[in-house]
Amino acid sequence: PLESYDLWEERRGVFTYTASTVYAGLLSASKLAYLVGNKEEGLIYEEKAEKIREGILKYLYDEESGRFLRGIYQDKNGNIIKDKTLESSLLLIHEFGVVDPEDYRMINTVKAIEEGLWIKEGIGGLARYENDYYHRVSDNVPGNPWIITTLWLANWYTEVGLFDKTFSLLNWVLKRKTQAGLLAEQYNPFTGEPLSVCPLTWSHSSFCYSVQKLNKKLIQQKTPEYVE
After folding, report:
1. pLDDT tens string 71-100
2. What is the share, in percent, of the chain residues with pLDDT greater than 70?
3. Bridge partners (DSSP) listed for residue 12
4. Whether residue 222 is found in the same domain as residue 127
5. What is the sign, positive or negative, of the torsion defined by CA atoms of 159, 164, 169, 171?
6. Are residues 130 and 89 in the same domain?
7. What pairs with residue 87 in β-bridges?
8. Listed residues 69, 102, 135: the one ending a domain
9. Do 108 and 66 form a contact (C-beta atoms < 8 A)?
């Protein structure tokens, strides 16, 4: 994968999240090409997508730490520098189809993120990444809890069938809403006060997506939760 920007538009390099979106985009382009009968283009997009996936697994999964990297950079001498910062956007790798939700590489990554980015003292929720500076409240937490990042974790639990944990995180989100039913971007990790933008469309749309994903999975599983 070539250099680009990270999800938060804060740094430039080769990032696992960005490369994963490129992989998913190329696969979608392939399906569209096949759909309109352009088999040659469909095959090209499909082959390029697979090369991107191979690159992700080769360069962006770190065997030493046993999880995906946030990204890699190259110095002036062409040496690769690994960015091992715990990053919430890595929770989306399975959503883009790079690996299955229950792939050991995904499981290891999720465990590390939940352990390192969950707000343990305070209201809970998941921070964006280690030492997030944006609207930072305290150095005693990795960052402020965000709605979207917490929902990304909920989505993974849905995929692997741990519905109790999904419901717990969805309820966490519901507790954050204002009297008018609005969700902010992030919250004070100790007081629960909304910080930054409120309402944030991304927070609301992510909640809708998570609920729809859960409903679909429950229907497929035919669980008692759905029957009730």
Report:
1. 999 888 989 999 999 999 999 999 999 999
2. 97
3. 5
4. yes
5. positive
6. no
7. 129
8. 102
9. yes
Do 207 and 173 touch, CB atoms closer than 8 A? yes
- How many angstroms separate the CA atoms of 183 and 211, rounded? 15
Chain position carrying tokens 């679909």: 216
Q: Residue 23 has which token pair?
A: 């992989």
8 A C-beta contact, residue 53 and residue 23: yes
Position 111 in a domain: no
Helix (H) or strand (E) holding 61: strand 61-62
Report the number of distinct structural domains present in the chain: 2
In this structure, which amino acid lies at residue 206?
S
Give the tokens for residue 207: 């909640």
| pTM beyond 0.85, yes or no | yes
Shortest CA distance to 27 belongs to which of 48, 58, 6, 7? 48
* pLDDT tens sequence across 134-188: 999 999 999 999 999 999 999 999 999 999 999 999 999 999 999 999 999 999 9
Domain assignment of residue 48, given as a range: 1-102
CA 53 to chain centre: 17
Please report whether residue 35 resides in a domain: yes
